[in-house]
Write a structure and sequence with these properties.
By secondary structure, the protein is of the alpha/beta class. The chain is 35% helix and 15% strand.
């Protein structure tokens, strides 16, 4: 039960744990207050992660109205492990309602937001700085030059994106490459057995352009833990973020509830929890650099870490893939092997490279 296997983040030399610690619930202020944790509660979770060998920390200026960064910075300093940690924060959301330049991805706001984050975190740099989301209007060239300047100033080590369209990520990385600007190494996106839409384009963007994907909400907001039950009146019942005030608005179809049965069956066969199956599946999917896991207590985090202690047999992974698959829609149907084999290649067997084209050069284990 350890996180001391590290892999490179995207097209970079930065080594990160396969599970990142999400700290959205560190603090009891602001939007995330209903499920926030006090500093003492956060300390226990943080220590459990560090003691297991984890080095990848995720926060944002928006989380618990900045309190997440403040607590996280204090805990890192308290432990004396700043250089060991890969610290990620994000900015886009408004920090001053009514001020049009206090939000978005313009140069004025990003610099202001990062400086404020550095003060709260008690550090003079962050390892990875991400746009929190696409703001729809700021020119991508301005964003790239701002991130490049922040890197050259030593305030950030690496740059990346979170929750942006695939075309935007592709354009940003291509411009960075052609103009010798700081490249993006990270693309943070929602991904789980109940949310696989990033496979349509984002996963390939990450693979082709060197963006390591960090998956947030690998448990589908807790749905995949199996703690919720179907209710004909309320839709879903159970104790958690999917019920009560502030619960995300979404519907759960027959397909989702059938998927839960498959996850439960796989968990039973392996002697693990449903949550561990869901986390393992995400963490071992193509292009995924790390899965972001949060916790309400140390024991819950330790259970999540154990998700890396086993391998999903091919037949069980196939069962999960089939139960969670979302059929391609619209133009994407034309990119399927069935369509291409029928019309594009007219029955000829065509592939990019033969199997085994890129095996490891040497087995260093």
């Amino acid at each position: 039960m350890a996180l001391d296997d590290y892999y490179l983040l995207g097209r970079s030399g930065l080594r990160v744990s396969r599970l990142a610690l999400g700290t959205m619930n560190f603090g009891t202020s602001g939007f995330h207050a209903p499920y926030g944790k006090t500093e003492d509660e956060a300390r226990a979770i943080f220590r459990a992660y560090v003691d297991a060998g984890g080095n990848f920390l995720d926060t944002a200026d928006f989380y618990t109205a900045g309190e997440s960064e403040t607590i996280l910075g204090k805990l890192i300093a308290e432990a004396g492990i700043r250089e060991r940690m890969v610290l990620t924060t994000k900015a886009t959301n408004s920090v001053d309602p009514g001020d049009p330049n206090a939000g978005g991805n313009g140069r004025k706001h990003l610099i202001r937001a990062l400086d404020a984050s550095l003060r709260r975190l008690g550090t003079d740099y962050v390892d990875v700085f991400l746009l929190h989301t696409w703001d729809r209007i700021t020119p991508v060239e301005e964003v790239l030059h701002t991130l490049d300047d922040l890197t050259r100033a030593g305030k950030i080590r690496y740059a990346g994106l979170s929750d942006v369209p695939a075309w935007y990520a592709a354009r940003a990385q291509t411009l960075a490459d052609t103009q010798s600007l700081t490249p993006m190494v990270n693309l943070q996106l929602p991904y789980s057995l109940v949310e696989r839409t990033i496979e349509t384009e984002h996963v390939t963007v990450g693979q082709e352009l060197g963006l390591g994907i960090t998956a947030w909400s690998p448990l589908g907001s807790g749905f995949l833990t199996g703690k919720y039950r179907r209710d004909d009146v309320q839709g879903v019942t159970g104790d958690g973020r999917l019920t009560g005030d502030g619960a995300p608005v979404r519907s759960w179809s027959d397909r989702h509830w059938d998927l839960l049965k498959t996850v439960e069956s796989v968990a039973d066969k392996l002697g693990v929890t449903m949550a561990q199956v869901a986390i393992n599946w995400v963490a071992t999917q193509p292009a995924i650099a790390s899965a972001i896991v949060g916790a309400s207590r140390p024991e819950q985090l330790q259970s999540s870490i154990k998700a890396l202690d086993f391998e999903l047999p091919i037949e069980l992974r196939t069962a999960l893939d089939e139960a969670s698959a979302v059929p391609p829609e619209s133009v994407y149907r034309m990119f399927t092997p069935e369509y291409q084999g029928w019309l594009v290649n007219a029955g000829a067997k065509v592939a990019d490279k033969p199997a085994g084209h890129r095996p490891p050069v040497l087995n260093w284990s």
